[in-house]
Design goal:
Strand content of chain B: 15-25%
Strand content of chain A: under 5%
Number of helices of chain A: 14
CATH architecture of the largest domain in chain B: 3-Layer(aba) Sandwich
CATH class of the largest domain in chain B: Alpha Beta
Structural class of chain B: alpha/beta
Low-confidence stretches of chain B: 249-253
Distance between the termini of chain B: 30 Å
Order of helices and strands of chain A: HHHHHHHEHHHEHHHH
CATH class of chain A: Mainly Alpha
Order of helices and strands of chain B: EEEEHEEHEHHHEHEHEEHHH
Distance between the termini of chain A: 48 Å
Mean pLDDT of chain B: 90
Shape of chain B: globular
CATH architecture of chain A: Orthogonal Bundle
CATH topology of the largest domain in chain B: Rossmann fold
Strand order of the largest sheet of chain B: 7-8-9-4-10-11
Oligomer: heterodimer
Number of domains of chain A: 1
Number of strands of chain B: 11
Radius of gyration of chain A: 23 Å
Structural class of chain A: mainly alpha
Mean pLDDT of chain A: 92
């Protein structure tokens, strides 16, 4: 064993290693990481829990939470990171759902056919709507995205061959030999894996070159153009990407209930999605997930609670929910995510 | 005669009955500082808007680096090497100083349809960005959010962003606006050091700065370029003295 003193290089390397390790521990022990990890773990084992406690109904709510989270994350890509208030995002529930439904009603049951067609339809619609709406700003953008969504809504309500207003019962997509979507637990896990994939993509997207252009344009789009970025093109790509993930959520929603209807894409659902993203924390990775969980949990618990107070009041749960949103808007600007501590580690705010 | 880098030919812009740019023909040669001065309402901002592509002229043409860019959108002109700083400080407030400059570097590093690689570890962007910050004296503030930088620092940051793409021409819209005397002097020194390496079109109210820096000066009044020449010629020009410089000439001269 040698007794020589460590060289300067060795000492420097050790210090860097220690600094990295301490940053790692800091990250692992931050409330933000812990809460996200616990939630993801809980979601991962949800079917086991609902089976153990014999609460099948909860698994159905859990599945919808996971699907809505995917939609909320996709909206967050443009709303949260891009600052584009699209008030028609539920239309992708409808387009994804109806693509599956119409193919299914035509006897084409294969998921390998249905799913790519549904995504392609969502992408095309998003590209068309984006190309027209992204030329406008502010309130006009909100109204145009809403108008296009309403257009699809009324078209679907007029489709006599596919149930019109009443919607359409469908059989679930078939993936022979791979997975049976009629099995509630299997379907849940499929949705969960797709949620993980969406989260992973969003985490990469947010800090990629593309994501920085989108976020920079939210901060100051004139500046971004003056830097040489063709902002419109990047926004259109983001809008289209967001539509693709929204369409995926639509596919899953149709398979969850084995049913599609115009109500899937009513403007109220688009509003709910915005509320979820704002409630959870715009432009944050896990915000949309928090928002969805909070939204569903509040809906499911406020209804019976109010019914308990007076029979029939449960219908009006949003009378209580609304003021809660106002409070969050006033006192927790960054949504639920901001309650978990400050963001932008490593940046100086002095 | 050297081919000018930027040239406008009888540019006209009207807002209703008001002629904000009245058949203006100016040019900027490679490496020179050409200052554009004029009282408030002379149409400087309108002219800048047309040069950057934010406003479309009603008549006339703009040539840059040998191309007709009159109908080209802003981002395409920037790609050709026409960078600008803003009159009202315009930085990305939610981003750090380093990220601001890194984005400026990114704008010139091919397309940005890259969705997966982490930009915060991309040394091809960060290394030149760090250099750019050092060059304007903001090296120590790299990880500070742009929103908390002082006004003077934000102006320096803007210059670093404008320089990031290695532009042929810098369009500086009142770079000294809102700066203290000391900050102004530092900025003048910085631009002086840059002189000769890059062409600049300088729009500035600070006459000291203009006469220190400019190779040529054009005076804009009511949308018209009433005079153009070297600082000495402008000082001596009777029409300019009457229309604009007034008593200030005594101090400067």
């Amino acid at each position: 064993m040698s007794h020589r003193l460590p060289t300067v290089h060795e000492m420097a390397a050790a210090i860097i290693l220690l600094a990295r390790a301490s940053r790692m521990i800091e990250w692992l022990s931050s409330p933000r990481t812990i809460v996200a990890a616990i939630l993801v773990l809980l979601l991962a084992v949800l079917p086991l829990l609902t089976q153990a406690f014999d609460q099948r109904y909860l698994l159905s709510i859990g599945t919808r939470i996971v699907i809505w989270s995917i939609a909320a994350i996709s909206l967050n890509m443009i709303l949260g990171y891009g600052g584009l208030v699209s008030f028609g995002h539920a239309v992708f529930f409808g387009i994804g759902g109806y693509a599956v439904g119409i193919l299914s009603a035509s006897g084409l049951q294969s998921g390998w056919l249905q799913w790519p067609v549904a995504i392609a339809a969502s992408v095309l619609w998003a590209a068309l709507v984006g190309a027209l709406s992204l030329r406008t700003r502010g309130v006009y953008f909100i109204m145009i995205t809403l108008a296009f969504a309403q257009l699809v809504y009324y078209v679907s309500a007029g489709l006599e061959a596919y149930g019109a207003d009443d919607g359409l019962n469908i059989s679930r997509s078939r993936f022979p030999g791979l997975i049976d979507l009629r099995d509630k637990a299997s379907f849940y896990w499929l949705c969960f894996v797709l949620l993980l994939g969406t989260l992973w993509f969003c985490s990469r997207f947010a800090n990629s070159r593309f994501g920085f252009v989108i976020r920079g344009a939210k901060s100051n789009d004139q500046r971004m153009m003056a830097l040489g970025f063709p902002v419109f093109r990047y926004r259109l790509a983001a809008f289209t990407l967001s539509g693709a993930f929204g369409g995926l959520a639509g596919i899953l929603l149709a398979n969850e209930g084995a049913y599609v209807s115009p109500a899937m894409m009513s403007w109220v659902k688009s509003g709910d999605l915005i509320v979820i993203v704002v409630l959870g924390g715009m432009g944050t990775l896990f915000g949309p997930l928090y928002g969805t969980i909070a939204f569903f949990v509040l809906e499911e618990s406020l209804k019976p609670l109010l019914d308990l107070v007076h029979k029939g009041w449960g219908e009006y749960w949003q009378i209580v929910f609304g003021p809660m949103l106002v409070l969050i808007a006033l006192y927790a600007k960054g949504g639920i995510d901001s309650l978990l501590g400050p963001r932008h580690e490593g940046r100086r705010h002095d | 005669m050297i081919e000018p880098l930027l040239r406008t030919d009888r540019l006209v812009k009207r807002f209703g009955g008001l002629v904000a740019t009245d058949t203006v023909s100016i040019d900027v040669r490679p490496g020179e500082i050409h200052a554009l001065i004029g009282p408030n309402g002379a149409g400087k901002t309108t002219l800048v808007g047309q040069l950057t592509g934010n406003l479309a002229p009603d008549a006339g043409t703009i040539h840059f680096a040998g191309r007709d860019v009159t109908r080209l959108p802003t981002h395409a002109r920037v790609r050709l090497g026409l960078a600008r700083s803003f009159q009202i400080t315009s930085v990305l407030r939610e981003f750090t100083a380093l990220e601001n400059v890194a984005l400026a570097v990114q704008a010139h590093a091919g397309h940005s349809f890259r969705f997966l690689a982490d930009v915060r570890r991309d040394e091809t962007l960060r290394a030149p960005a760090r250099q750019g910050l050092e060059a304007v004296g903001l090296g120590a503030r790299a990880d500070t959010l742009a929103s908390v930088l002082s006004h003077g620092e934000q102006r320096q940051l803007e210059i670093a962003m404008a320089l990031a793409g290695d532009p042929k021409l810098l369009l500086l819209d009142e770079p000294m606006a809102g700066m203290g005397a000391e900050e102004s002097q530092r900025m003048i020194g910085f631009l002086q050091a840059l002189k000769g390496k890059r062409a600049m079109l300088l729009i500035e109210h600070d006459m000291d700065a203009v006469f220190q820096l400019a190779d040529r000066i054009t005076v804009l009044v009511y949308g018209r370029a009433i005079a153009s020449g070297t600082p000495d010629e402008i000082r001596a020009n009777a029409e300019v003295r009457q229309a604009y410089l007034g008593d200030e000439t005594a101090e400067v001269a």
